[in-house]
Amino acid sequence: MMNLSDEEFFSAVKASFNVLPELFLSDVGISITDREKYIMAKQPDSFNLNLSVGTKLAENSAAVKAIKTKKRQMARWPKEVFGFPVIAYSIPLVNDFTGNCVGTISYVVSLENENRMMQMVDELKDLSSELAASSQELASSTEELSASTQNINDLVNKTKTGLASMDEILKYINTISDTTNLLGLNAAIESARAGEYGKSFSVVSQEIRKLASNSKDSANQINTTLGEQKENINNIINFIKDFSSTSEAQASQSQKIAESSEKLSELSLNLLNVSKNTME
């Protein structure tokens, strides 16, 4: 410890004043005060604080509080005071040898850029929250749609199974038709053999063969219609399968977007906290 008087100590501090602004990365207004007034002052380049050498310290200023408490003091001024928000720090100049506080080093920093960054971070946080909520809603809707699609797919498969059963019924009708036609043919032959006595039976056999033919024609028409319906249903099934796969992929992507949005929101919050800590 150097045994300096208060005057020598204060003079040494004043001698280093010109290099003090170089210690800051941002543009600052910096000054040295004694216990009553500003002794040295440097205006910032990007804003004006009207720092004037010889101006008396305000009673409620950070500099006066630092002198009285011998501790660093901080003060904030809102935008309405200077046209932009600022934060000021006053560091007491305490001579370790005498224990006296001879003045302060005070510096003022504009918080305009920091406030803009905090505003952008807040907007980013809100945006990421909205994006996360929308993504989750989309994922939920897609999952519901996928479930509905599966239900439709099950219903179509049941219909397809029912159509297959109708194929068996049609085959059975065709078999009956063929058998009936054969019986009608045999009846016509026997009627012809019976001659005059078989005429009435011949009419019956013709009606039987006519019925068999109509049954077969109807069965063929039904079979053709069912074939077309089968093709349509198969097309629907293929479409639903493709749509279901797309829905599942969308649900997966939506979930990933939601997770990314949550991470973005977390990063925004961390950035906001860093910004606040930097300004304090």
From TrEMBL:
It comes from Clostridium luticellarii. Residues 117-144 form a coiled coil. GO terms for cellular component: membrane. The keyword Coiled coil applies. The keyword Cell membrane does not apply. It comes from the Bacteria. The lineage of its organism: Bacteria, Bacillati, Bacillota, Clostridia, Eubacteriales. Keywords: Coiled coil, Transducer. Signal peptide: none annotated. SMART domains: MA. Residues 115-280 form the Methyl-accepting transducer domain. Pfam families: MCPsignal. This is Putative sensory transducer protein YfmS. One of its GO terms (biological process) is signal transduction. PROSITE patterns: CHEMOTAXIS_TRANSDUC_2.
